[in-house]
Write a structure and sequence with these properties.
Blueprint: H1 15-45, H2 49-58, H3 64-87, H4 91-114, E1 119-120, E2 128-129, H5 137-156, H6 164-167
């Protein structure tokens, strides 16, 4: 046929496919730094730890002792993940851990929404009860799905510049 390429012609590839090996490390670097900033800010806004404990208690999922343990350790976990992402150490695993953390956050938000609780998620600052129409559960979930997408990029394509992983011979 007139419009068909000759059978011996090489298959065409998109510009992204051709340039991906060059672009990918920089995409991952941007995702790493963005996630590190998000996690560090989230942890910072949960200080002093009493604010974080208040946020966890608002979900009404745990006993007071467990809520206190989670409230005190969550900012530390977020700071640790942020630091590891920033320096690029164990990038694939930290990306996976970040994605799992976001899934846990989504599950908590869905649980609160399904039970009719009117709370602020506490993701960036103090959470707790809010007026009936002031919840933003759908937006909170969409935001966390976006963070999962960033973490997924880091997890699937961990190779990036300015990463300690390179010093240790990982993801060259």
């Amino acid at each position: 046929m007139d419009g068909d390429p000759p059978s011996d012609a090489a298959p065409r590839t998109s510009a992204l496919t051709r340039h991906w090996p060059t672009v990918q490390p920089w995409v991952t670097l941007v995702c790493r730094i963005a996630l590190a900033g998000i996690l560090a800010f989230a942890a910072y806004t949960k200080l002093p730890p009493a604010l974080s404990v208040q946020s966890v208690e608002a979900y009404q999922l745990f006993s007071p002792g467990v809520a206190e343990l989670i409230g005190y350790t969550l900012p530390l976990i977020e700071f640790a993940l942020a630091l590891l992402l920033l320096i690029g150490l164990a990038t694939r695993y930290v990306g996976g851990a970040t994605a799992l953390l976001m899934l846990v956050f989504i599950a908590g938000i869905v649980s609160a929404w399904a039970r009719g609780l009117a709370i602020d998620c506490g993701c960036f600052g103090s959470g707790g009860p809010v007026a009936e129409g002031e919840t933003a559960y759908g937006l909170d979930i969409l935001r966390d799905i976006g963070f999962i997408a960033l973490a997924g990029i880091v997890m699937i394509w961990p190779r990036s510049p300015l990463a300690l992983d390179r010093v240790f011979g990982l993801y060259r």
